[in-house]
């Protein structure tokens, strides 16, 4: 790429995401309207030459290795050689130490994503497909990631005359960002319900907004207990959000958004016992269904005895209007009798009324 003198006349927006940088320009539609397909493709070539190539150049200066992946013969077979070549030319695979990246251009936008596969990876396909890429990075990896995208942002804003950086509407919470309390304070000040006298939204004293799981009153700034997604009891400080929802700060950077009826004002008993009976029941019923479908009746018998000890009478609930069975836990519907939720007599009390119909599980096939 030839050296340029002075700044280049281009306008666009830059923004940061989760360990990523995005560039967006608005000139493509105008070029298409003015000159049709040829003008559109000419604009895309200029965009790639002026912006995409400069980002590659800057990454190389920062110590990143950027490579073009080889053309996949399967793409040539399915889409043709020209399309396959275009597909690889608009992407760069990047790497610096443990950090990996992908730079891609598509139409009027460019995106540079970074991730790592060294630790804290949950997705079986790799860290690229994990949520929360930044918080999974080590301190040094996060420093390098921020340095890289800050340098690219500053470079593009200096080279192009009307490039602007659009900061995130909400500050990022976590190491290198704001604390949980600072994040809540910023959220309060942006809320339509903000009360300057209280320095937060009001309404926590309304009936139903502060009733706790143990029948007490949740107060702003008080210590509370709640069960997380896995059923483990956590504790933290409650701060009012809106309606019956409360922020619960459990650490310097950690917070949860919980309904008042999920909070306890007194420490629950048996903290080591998981509160996950509903999730356990649904999981066991799914495993029972899989065992029956696989004709593994020995395993199905074991699961049945775990789910329903004593062999009680079991029922299913049919919805007349939907013409479907209720799923386990009354969460959703299914047309497959084997996947319908199984309930005891006590669990279906009050459900045998229109549009629902309770029936013994053994007779469900005939009724459906």
From TrEMBL:
Keyword terms of this UniProt record: Coiled coil, DNA damage, DNA excision, DNA repair, Excision nuclease, SOS response
GO MF annotations, alphabetized: nuclease activity
Segments forming a coiled coil: 274-301
Keyword hit for Transcription regulation: no
Cross-referenced InterPro entries: UVR_dom (IPR001943), UVR_dom_sf (IPR036876)
One record GO biological process: DNA repair
UniProt superkingdom: Bacteria
Domain spans labelled UVR: 278-307
Name the record gives this protein: Phage protein
Organism from which the protein derives: Cupriavidus basilensis
């Amino acid at each position: 790429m030839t050296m340029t003198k002075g700044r280049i006349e281009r306008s666009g927006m830059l923004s940061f995401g989760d360990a990523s940088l995005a560039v967006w320009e608005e000139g493509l539609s105008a070029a298409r309207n003015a000159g049709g397909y040829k003008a559109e493709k000419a604009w895309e070539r200029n965009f790639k030459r002026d912006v995409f190539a400069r980002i590659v150049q800057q990454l190389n200066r920062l110590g990143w290795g950027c490579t073009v992946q080889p053309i996949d013969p399967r793409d040539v077979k399915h889409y043709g050689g020209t399309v396959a070549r275009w597909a690889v030319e608009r992407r760069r695979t990047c790497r610096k130490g443990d950090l990996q990246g992908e730079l891609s251009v598509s139409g009027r936008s460019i995106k540079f994503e970074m991730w790592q596969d060294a630790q804290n990876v949950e997705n079986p396909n790799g860290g690229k497909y994990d949520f929360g890429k930044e918080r999974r990075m080590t301190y040094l990896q996060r420093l390098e990631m921020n340095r890289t995208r800050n340098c690219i942002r500053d470079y593009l804003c200096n080279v192009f005359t009307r490039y602007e950086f659009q900061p995130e509407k909400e500050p990022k919470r976590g190491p290198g960002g704001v604390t949980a309390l600072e994040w809540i304070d910023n959220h309060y000040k942006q809320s339509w319900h903000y009360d300057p006298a209280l320095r937060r939204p009001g309404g926590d004293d309304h009936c139903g907004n502060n009733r706790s799981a143990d029948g007490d009153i949740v107060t702003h700034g008080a210590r509370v207990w709640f069960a997380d997604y896995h059923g483990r009891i956590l504790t933290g400080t409650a701060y009012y959000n809106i309606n019956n929802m409360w922020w619960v700060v459990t650490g310097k950077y950690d917070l949860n958004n919980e309904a008042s009826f999920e909070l306890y004002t007194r420490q629950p008993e048996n903290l080591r016992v998981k509160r996950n009976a509903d999730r356990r029941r649904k999981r066991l019923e799914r495993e029972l269904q899989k065992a029956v479908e696989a004709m593994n009746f020995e395993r199905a018998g074991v699961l049945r005895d775990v789910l329903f000890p004593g062999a009680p009478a079991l029922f299913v609930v049919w919805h007349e209007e939907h013409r479907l069975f209720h799923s386990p836990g009354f969460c959703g519907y299914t047309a497959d009798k084997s996947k319908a939720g199984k309930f005891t007599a006590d669990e279906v009390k009050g459900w045998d009324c229109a549009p629902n119909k309770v029936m013994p599980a053994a007779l469900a096939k005939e009724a459906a």
